[in-house]
């Protein structure tokens, strides 16, 4: 045939299975490099994952359960019995719950080096603060727990009152920002029976439950504090001072009376003040609490043998001629 008699052209196509570049081309170099980088990345990821797993696993199989039980033993309940008030610690401005519980666990376990109140009392007070904080907290008495109360009320206002002006200055130097004032008490424990009788006789007059303490003539009224403290709506009042263990000590008659008046004089309708009295097993603390804070206001669920918890309400509906529904007659029963 005519078409086969001329010159022939042979066309060779490169195989599609071979790389398009030569041995020295960029494609031949980048392929193995990408595979090497991927292998290194996967190896590093596996090592990090393995290390994280090993570090997070408990060394002792029983450790996790024991730690959980120990944490639960010192867990402070978020709720509580009594009137509402300041937002709870978990509500925003207060301490995170785990920080709050850690501080309470340390204090209740006797972690500080100073003589402290029993762990049950610390937890009872902390339960009230956890429900009310951040709040306005007034504390009668300085001591080993002072930094704890201040820390648990993070975001609120905490004021301390103490009989010893030198101790006030000492702690103010050790704890910058601490708000503390010294109080000149004019009473002694040996005067307790006469003071209580006089207050009962004048409970509709100068020792009435609702009054301006700045101008009070009642011997049990504390009226030499900075004026602005009398205008504060106190959410929690802790009475852990002054001294009351000897006949010549000032005793806590004035502190308990003043706490009762401050709580009842609050102007907000339905306002409730949690009042906690430490060393409640002693005669003075028990009798004055029953007289001025009243048994009908005591919260048994958050009280202990040595700590009494009262919820005292203010507002326009408060009686102005007597502290208690029964006139305080129960105070004589020990």
Account of the protein in words:
The chain has 334 residues and is α/β, with parallel strands linked by helices. It is built from nine helices and six strands, in the order H-H-H-H-E-H-E-H-E-H-E-H-E-H-E. It starts with 25 loop residues before the first helix and ends in a 21-residue tail after the last strand. The relative contact order is 0.11.
Give a quick rundown of the structure.
The chain is α/β, with parallel strands linked by helices and 334 residues long. The chain is built from nine helices and six strands.
**What percent strand?**
5-15%
Work out the helix count: 9
- pLDDT < 50 stretches: 9-13, 15-30, 53-75, 78-92, 329-334
The succession of helices and strands, N to C, reads HHHHEHEHEHEHEHE
* Number of E strands: 6
**Rounded Rg:** 36 Å
Strands of the largest sheet, in order across it?
3-2-1-4-5-6
Look at the helices and sheets and give the structural class.
alpha/beta
Task: Estimate the mean pLDDT confidence.
Answer: 79
Give the helix proportion (percent range): 25-40%
Give the CA-CA distance, first to last residue. Answer: 138 Å
> Per the principal axes of the C-alpha atoms, what is the gross shape?
elongated
Largest sheet: 6 strands, mixed
């Amino acid at each position: 045939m005519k078409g086969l008699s001329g010159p022939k052209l042979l066309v060779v196509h490169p195989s599609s299975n071979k790389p398009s570049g030569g041995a020295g081309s960029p494609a031949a170099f980048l392929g193995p490099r990408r595979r090497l980088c991927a292998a290194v990345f996967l190896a590093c990821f596996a090592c990090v994952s393995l290390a994280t797993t090993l570090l997070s696993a408990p060394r002792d199989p029983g450790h996790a359960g024991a730690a959980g039980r120990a944490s639960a033993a010192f867990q402070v309940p978020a709720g509580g019995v009594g009137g509402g008030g300041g937002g709870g610690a978990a509500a925003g401005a207060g301490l995170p719950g785990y920080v709050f519980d850690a501080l309470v666990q340390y204090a209740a376990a006797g972690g500080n080096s100073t003589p402290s109140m029993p762990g049950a009392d610390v937890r009872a007070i902390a339960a009230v603060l956890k429900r009310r904080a951040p709040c306005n907290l007034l504390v009668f008495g300085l001591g080993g727990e002072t930094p704890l109360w201040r820390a648990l009320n993070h975001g609120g206002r905490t004021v301390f009152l103490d009989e010893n002006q030198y101790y006030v200055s000492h702690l103010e130097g050790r704890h910058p920002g601490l708000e503390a004032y010294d109080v000149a008490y004019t009473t002694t424990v040996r005067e307790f029976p006469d003071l209580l009788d006089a207050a009962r006789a004048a409970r509709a007059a100068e020792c009435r439950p609702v009054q301006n303490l700045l101008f009070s003539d009642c011997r049990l009224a504390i009226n030499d504090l900075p004026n602005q403290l009398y205008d504060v709506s106190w959410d929690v009042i802790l009475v852990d001072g002054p001294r009351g263990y000897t006949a010549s000590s000032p005793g806590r008659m004035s502190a308990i009376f003043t706490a009762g008046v401050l709580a009842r004089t609050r102007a907000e309708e339905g306002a409730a003040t949690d009042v906690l009295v430490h060393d409640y097993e002693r005669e003075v603390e028990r009798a004055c609490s029953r007289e001025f804070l009243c048994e009908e206001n005591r919260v048994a669920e958050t009280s202990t043998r040595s700590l009494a918890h009262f919820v005292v309400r203010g507002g326009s509906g408060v009686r102005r001629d007597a502290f208690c529904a029964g006139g305080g007659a129960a105070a004589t029963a020990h």
